[in-house]
Design a protein that fits this description.
Elements: H1 18-26, H2 28-32, E1 38-41, E2 49-52, E3 69-73, E4 77-82, H3 89-92, E5 98-103
Antiparallel strand pairs: 1-2, 3-4, 4-5
């Protein structure tokens, strides 16, 4: 398997202060407000960025186990790895993961 430069880009404006959006993406409590059933967030490079969806599955097969924070700039950018769902074992166990980059920017109302 080879790496690729393929990208999916999505832009979304949310009516919420930047500080709150950052909190939602970077804390256990914040992420629970909009994404997944549970999570483990360690906001440090190499720390866990695991989002769990399938809480009835055994540990290791609940969702984002093994995903890691790649980097972050407070209130500007968060990047982390993303793996395949548990039902795609061969892909999930691969050394290759998707990289997710979330950029944050306050916009003025006008």
């Amino acid at each position: 398997m080879q790496t690729t430069d393929k990208q999916i880009r999505k832009s979304k404006v949310v009516n919420c202060p930047l500080e709150i959006v950052w909190w939602k993406w970077t804390t256990h409590e914040g992420l629970l407000t909009f994404f997944g059933k549970d999570n483990k967030i360690e906001l440090t490079p190499g720390g866990a960025y695991e989002i769990y969806f399938l809480m009835n599955n055994p540990v290791g097969l609940r969702g984002g186990e093994g995903c890691k924070v790649l980097s972050f700039l407070p209130k500007e950018m968060l990047s982390f790895t993303w793996n395949a769902p548990p039902e795609f074992k061969e892909i999930r166990d691969s050394v290759y993961h998707t990289w997710v980059i979330v950029n944050f920017k306050a916009v003025s109302q006008g």
